[in-house]
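Worked Example 4.2. Consider the chain below.
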Amino acid sequence: MKFSVLDKKIKSYLIYISLFNVTLFTTTLAGAEWSRGKYLMLGMTWEDFLFGFNFSLPFLGILTVHEFGHYFTARYHHIKVSLPYYIPMWLGFIGVPSIGTMGAFIRIKAQIVSRTKYFDVGVSGPITGFVVAVLVLWYGFTNLPEESYIYEIHPEYLEYNSLDEAIEAGEGTVIFLGGNLLFDFFKDYVADPDKVPHPNEIIHYPWLFAGYLALFFTALNLLPMGQLDGGHVLFGLFGAKNHAIISRVLFTGYLFYAGLGWITIEDLKNNSFESFGLFIFNLAAYLYLLYLCAFSFFKDAQTRLLYATILLTLQFFAASIFKVEGYPAWIVFSLFIGRVIGIDHPPVTDNQPLSPGRKILGWVALVIFILCFSPQPLKVEGL
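Applying the procedure from the previous section yields the following structure tokens:
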């Protein structure tokens, strides 16, 4: 019996270690691809691969600190929990850029029955990961290479009179990062202004890219809704009833912004039968997508359909009249929240309010969310 328990533990540790090692390898490959602009089967050298550690080590370091923040807090509260499971995901073999991982997670193996414990476990990961992300960005922005660095990656830029002229004249796919308050602060007030990379080129600076992605995932985790870390913070601060209201309002606003511009009056300008048929198909498909996003909102299908129809109508008129566009990629995450993890928070038996110190920490976490959030984090043009 003892041997079987020991064998099970050894097997578990082997899984943890193996997943981490594979994820380290795939994120290093991804880092080399982003930094050097080369794929494994298309020109990547051993030196390029080693350079990829400049991305994988800080990025996985932040991710690891985040997950162990959850882990050690859960252990402190005597909650049975697993070590982090890392999820490798590399798409370079088909020529598609990726970051080498889908993140990591811990498994809570026991029910959490306290509002305070939910708050502590939820807030600990983003807070600790955020601190390390700030350090990574500080290092990255205070150790920027000379301008010659970007010419090593893009030798074609040497044909132009200046870097700005080369970038503006560039053809093909362009990937650039949208700003957020914290990243822009480092760029404007910490970095040497003569060395700050063009927004189109930040993906080639591994420490900056790793730090930016860390802020992006911190913001995602701290979205104050559902059972995300931010949802646990919201639940801790305001309780179950207020969580349900605030979570629904914020989720609706988030989904409304995401779908702006998906269906507009411009889609009806071509009066051909084929165009109208395509419009109807897109309309029905998008309506069904909104319906799925509202799955955990309402128990009955009719109410979900009504919610989706009203939201689509408001988006249609807002985008058509004011010519505004949202960020369609957020719809994927909205679907994950609304259909998979749910918009409501699990109930607890111990519903005691948070201590004053925890309330302050909760508001700090919400401020961190604002500092890290970008309405349009990754933009791709030229596809």
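The two ends are 59 Å apart (CA to CA). The longest helix spans residues 2-36. Compare this with Example 4.1 before moving on.
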